[in-house]
What we know:
Strand order of the largest sheet: 1-2
Radius of gyration: 23 Å
Structural class: alpha+beta
Helix content: 25-40%
Distance between the termini: 70 Å
Number of strands: 4
Number of helices: 2
Strand content: 5-15%
Number of domains: 2
Order of helices and strands: EEEEHH
Largest sheet: 2 strands, antiparallel
Amino acid sequence: MTAMTGALRTVDDDAPERCAFCPRDAVGPCASCRRLVCGECCTLTEGGVKTWAICLECDRKKGSRLGGAWGTLGAWLVALLVGLAAIVALLEWLWPS
């Protein structure tokens, strides 16, 4: 007797994944939202070193550039460095040598 896992099971585990927007076979994930898309339901990024696929929904909402994601990462890193510098300054002020 086997235990029930509650996981969704398919008859054919080797079946290709389907596109999130149409019934075609998916070729890969969207670089923005990570949903699986086919070649017809995506656009390619512009102006990057590497080309990425963006689903049509994300393209309508944000455009096909990933610059906003890199800007957010850069701002987060700068905020982290400023926070660490503030902690160091506070510690120097509390415990002068």
